[in-house]
Each structure stands twice: as structure tokens, then as C-alpha cells.
Specification:
four-stranded antiparallel β-sheet; 312 residues; alpha+beta; 20 strands
């Protein structure tokens, strides 16, 4: 995902390796104050959800997976687990945080040695106690994309509580916007070409909400057997999906659920993505491995410009 450069003072934007923030002109908060809000909130999310931190709430819970005991969890981890379980059910298992085990075998290691998952007869991978804020894991899990979507949701909420109401917040291919763009009206967002072209495949207009891209263009590496692998694992096979699709972008009110559906639709494949996204009313854009672009009717209504594409 790529934004078109706004016509505003450069001091109204801040970026680092994790995220970027653009404020529209006329906002009451200095960019440094707004940036501090974002950094502090993202740090809270990473302490709760990162599997690349041995001391995170998620890593500690993963170490206890399968012990049969209830463990107290913080609000952010509890929300992530509840949302992941719901996404697992709504997508028929295509969104499954247990792919962490396969990612580890393919060479993408977290910061803790994971216990073995429990036998398949266990009815679910997590039990939750909302009142007691407790969880019982039966297999290690990855917060993955839904965690990044939640990080954007929570950071955007913190910005709003801090009096910042016109902004775009980005994190590695995902973004959320609120209020008018710097020049007024919609935010104009370019959807990047996974083949690396400087020209986007489409430019979309957002009044608010999120746009998220799942792609195999960045997180791919040489696996243990010498073949190219990537992070989009099909839970049904345990393998990195065949590369019939190169990227899928979804626009939705909430970034966490845009993340869920961008991945689930990616796993639906070239033949399944159009019919399912259209049936669910999802605004989705995708690029096939041969460079062909497609979009749903809901996506077309948000599209300001697109290169040659075909509706599905």
C-alpha cells in the first residue's frame, strides 16, 4: 500500500521502521506529540502480542500451551485471541493462528522454543474466560496480521483520544485514515504493484477506515529444502500457498478485519477470490501472478483510477 504524497508541510509527517503518521493541516496537535502517542501505543501492543519478544504476553502464553491450565491475560492479548478465534470460525479455518508451527519449520523463528501442539481431537485451540480475563491455549499461536491490524486500531483510537482527528497511520502495507486529507476531501491511496513497478495498480479514495494488503512480495525466503517459501500458509495443507496470486488488498472499516479477509481471500486463490469477495460485499483488489488485476464491484466504487483490470 502506498499513499500519494499530500500537499502539506513535511513537519506534519513522521516515520520509522514500524509505522508512519501523516497529519492533515489544521490539526491542533504538534506532530511530535501525535507521534509520541503512536509510538507509545504500538509499544504496548508489541509487549502484548509480539512473538519476536520472549517477554511478551503472547510468548509467555505460548510457552504454556497445552498445559491445560488457565492463565491470566491482559486486555490486548485477550482481544486478539477472541478476534482470532472468531476469524478462524468465519473463514472456515483459512485464518488460523496455529500456522506459527509451520512458519517455525520453514525458518521464520520467534524468540521462544514452542511446545508441541496438542492432538487434533481437542475441539478448539483456545478457551477464553472473558469475565476472569483468562485464556487456555491448546496450541501455540501467532498474532500475525490481525495483531498489526489491532495495533493500528488501538493507535488510531489513542490519537483520537489525544485530540488528533485528521490523520493517516501506516504500518507495513496496512493503513487507517480518519477525517479529511490534507488538501480536503478523501485520502488518495495508491495500491502498490507487487512486481515492483513505480506506478500503482490503482488509486483509491478513502473517507475513513482501513486498507490492507497481503502480499508474497516481501516476506519470502529460502526454506530448509532450498525452495522459495513465504508467510501465507494454507492451514489445510500446512504449506506456503501456490503463487497464483501475488497480492490482495481489502478496504474495510476496521484494519484488523481487513487483515483477516485479505489473507482469507488470498488463500481462496485465483478462482475463488472474486466469487467469495463479491458474495460477502468486500471491497477487494488483487493481482495475479501473471500481472492481471481484478476487483470487486465494492472496490470499483472506491477506485479513482486503475490500470487495465477485469471485474470478477
Amino acid at each position: 500500500m502506498r499513499r500519494r504524497p499530500p500537499r502539506c508541510d513535511a513537519r506534519r509527517g513522521r516515520w520509522d521502521r514500524r509505522c508512519g503518521l501523516t497529519l492533515a493541516d489544521g490539526g491542533p496537535a504538534p506532530i511530535d506529540t501525535a507521534w509520541e502517542i503512536v509510538v507509545a501505543d504500538v509499544e504496548r501492543t508489541e509487549r502484548a502480542l509480539s512473538r519476536f519478544r520472549s517477554g511478551s504476553d503472547l510468548s509467555q502464553l505460548n510457552l504454556a500451551a497445552g498445559d491445560g491450565a488457565w492463565h491470566g491475560v491482559g486486555d490486548r492479548l485477550h482481544t486478539c485471541l477472541a478476534a482470532s478465534r472468531r476469524a478462524w470460525r468465519l473463514t472456515g479455518g483459512r485464518f488460523d493462528p496455529r500456522v506459527i508451527a509451520r512458519l517455525e519449520k520453514l525458518g521464520e523463528h520467534g524468540d521462544v522454543q514452542l511446545p508441541a501442539p496438542q492432538p487434533a481431537h481437542v475441539r478448539t485451540w483456545v478457551d477464553l474466560d472473558p469475565r476472569g480475563r483468562r485464556a487456555r491455549l491448546w496450541a501455540p499461536v501467532d498474532s500475525g496480521g490481525i495483531g498489526k491490524g489491532l495495533a493500528l486500531r488501538w493507535a488510531a483510537r489513542s490519537l483520537a483520544l489525544g485530540g488528533v482527528h485528521r490523520f493517516m497511520l501506516e504500518a507495513g502495507g496496512d493503513l487507517i485514515v480518519q477525517g479529511e486529507a490534507p488538501e480536503g476531501g478523501q485520502w488518495h491511496i495508491g495500491i502498490e504493484d507487487p512486481a515492483g513497478s513505480v506506478d500503482p495498480i490503482a488509486v483509491i479514495g478513502l473517507d475513513g477506515g482501513a486498507a490492507v494488503t497481503s502480499s508474497i512480495a516481501v516476506r519470502r525466503w529460502i526454506g530448509p529444502e532450498g525452495s522459495i517459501v513465504h508467510h501465507l500458509i494454507d492451514p489445510a495443507t500446512g504449506e506456503a500457498t501456490a503463487m497464483a496470486l501475488a497480492s490482495v488488498t481489502v478496504a474495510a472499516p476496521d484494519p484488523a478485519w481487513a487483515e483477516v479477509w485479505s489473507k482469507a481471500l488470498f488463500l481462496a486463490g485465483r478462482r475463488g477470490i472474486g466469487p467469495e469477495a463479491r458474495a460477502r460485499g468486500i471491497a477487494a483488489w488483487w493481482v495475479e501472478s501473471d500481472g492481471t488485476c481484478g476487483m470487486t464491484p465494492a472496490a470499483r466504487s472506491l477506485t479513482l483510477w486503475a490500470r487495465a483490470d477485469r471485474p470478477r
